[in-house]
Amino acid sequence: MTQITIPLNGIDADCLSQLEYSLSFASEEILSYNVSADGAALELALSSDEAKGRVERKVLELIERYRQRECALPKAIEFQQQRELPVIDAWSGLIERKWITPVGQGHVILRGLAAQLAGLIEDRVERIFGGAFNAERELYPATISCKTLDRIHHFTSFPEHVDFVSHLKGDLDVLNEFTKECRDGGWSPGANQGKMADNDFAICPSCCYHCYEGMENWEVEMPGRCATMVVACHRYEGANHRTMSRLRAFTQRDVVWVGHPRFVIEGRAKAEELIVQWATDWELSGTLETANDMFFTEDYSVKASFQRQQQAKKELRLNIPHENIAISCFSSNFHAMTFGKAFNIKVGGRTASSGCVGWGYERWVYAIFSQFGFDFDAWPGQLKEEFESYRRARESRK
């Protein structure tokens, strides 16, 4: 193993966190990395001496990308609620109680009270947000056409996230050979080599994409329509998969508006008011603040600065004391006419705008146990009351 140190100059704290995230995708020759204690340099462990030059070039390219001042726009905090929190290792506690079970990189099974808490969150979204906007419920497949992802420029913004879907070639000899190899020695990645068909689908990286492609060439009645959906999404995030703060497979719920800009903007603003009330009711420690997506492209700073300047993206970030981080559990997004143009969606004879708000259910579960622990008598009053009421209602239906 080879160690190298690369100086960090001109990277502010916010951009540094995004640089650290992106290092997972810089090179497979990087075994591990961390920021030095004084914050002045990156310390990297490499697979070999020969990797030094290749890795240094790639890391310096990323440093330059995130050094650009356009990405260092200050956050605007619209809501903040802090309380004294204990430091609880919720990940270990959930595993110990068998309420979650890790089943692969970034994959978990929820059961017991963790699954029930996810059910409460689902129920609350359905009642409060679905009802407030008369949202039409839609059901989507978990996979999406690569042609659709290309049309909305997902591959040029988030190429590192995509989990492609394929299948074995429709060829008897290939199928026989694959079966024999698995029978003789068990499956391994090598058994797939040369036997897979071309990729034409990927697992959905975001909840709302099917909504827009499903409305292609529609003329939406004024002022627009609202839909809601739940999708099992996938995003590959490399070494960033840890605990439940970043999962590769996760459950995302969205409420989407498509129509006149005012209809979309007003719906989004109302949803932000409702999420602030939710956080207040449950006494959650965190902030609602402007944000930007983790674009992994050369034009990162342009896209990120546009989002922040236009307040096109906001996040409810909930504190995880044990990890000394805050994670995004709710996202609010205004897309302007991006998807309306991509899929020729009209309203009042003009290109429709769109926006969405979304929840990551597993993150909500993780944040609640991280903040309040496993002693339910110590949970905030309204959260405890709603949770117990939800559990009683489920029991009564059995």
Q: How would you concisely characterize the structure shown here?
A:
By secondary structure, the protein is an alpha+beta fold. It contains twelve helices and 19 strands.
Description:
With 398 residues, this protein is of the alpha+beta class. It folds into 3 domains: 2-67, Alpha-Beta Plaits (2-Layer Sandwich), CATH 3.30.70.100; 77-144 and 205-397, BirA Bifunctional Protein, domain 2 (2-Layer Sandwich); 164-201, no CATH class. The chain has 12 helices and 19 strands. It has an 8-stranded mixed beta sheet. Strands 1-3-2 form a 3-stranded antiparallel beta sheet, covered by helices on one side. A hairpin with a 4-residue loop joins strand 15 (313-320) and strand 16. The chain is globular and about 60 Å long.
Write the layout of secondary structure elements.
Layout: E1 2-7, H1 13-22, E2 30-35, E3 41-46, H2 52-67, E4 77-81, H3 90-96, E5 100-102, E6 108-110, H4 112-132, E7 136-137, E8 143-145, H5 146-151, E9 164-165, H6 172-185, E10 201-203, H7 209-213, E11 219-220, E12 224-234, E13 249-259, H8 261-281, E14 286-290, H9 300-309, E15 313-320, E16 325-336, H10 338-342, E17 346-347, E18 350-351, E19 353-360, H11 361-372, H12 381-397
Helix pairs in contact: 1-2, 4-11, 4-12
